Amino acid sequence: MSKKVNVEFELLEGLTVTVDGVQYDVSRPAPPDRPHPFVYHISIHNGSDEVVRIFGRKWIVRDTDGDTMVVEGDGVVGQFPNLAPGQSFSYDSYHVIKSESTATGSFFGSTDDGRPVCVRIPPFEMQPPLFA
Questions:
Q1: CA angle 125, 128, 38 (to 5 degrees)
Q2: Domain residues of the chain, as ranges?
Q3: For a disulfide at 111, which of 22, 46, 50, 87, Cβ 3.0-4.6 Å?
Q4: Looking at residues 29-37, what average pLDDT do you find?
Q5: What is the pLDDT of residues 91-112, one digit of tens each?
Q6: CATH 2.60.40.1470 fits 10-122, yes or no
Q7: CB under 8 Å to 100, separation ≥6 — which residues?
Q8: Which of 93, 94, 103, 108 lies closest to 10, judged by CA?
Q9: Tell me, what's the pLDDT at 130?
């Protein structure tokens, strides 16, 4: 039997995230129930005095119909960035949505001494184009 362990993550001063861009991208695959793909460009900046290893993320995507989709997983686009002070990690990924939505979330990591830390992802809007 597995035992669930609650870990308290703290915000690390100087560890920040920027949303560098969001674009509608019809070239991405999307299922019929969520036909609108949006590519987003994210950067994680380590402005702290500590080395931080990012090992997970959690996204919360809420649409205007009141539906919420939660996406959690290990790593960031298949990587586990190790950020020394002053370093950044940038990547592109995408969400598929059914209607106008807002995305936000957090990245989770640890410092060299094993302290669990997190950083919030600023909310961003995804507004599908109107088709006449």
A1: 65
A2: 10-122
A3: 50
A4: 94
A5: 999 999 999 999 999 999 999 9
A6: yes
A7: 63, 64, 125, 126, 127, 128
A8: 108
A9: 77
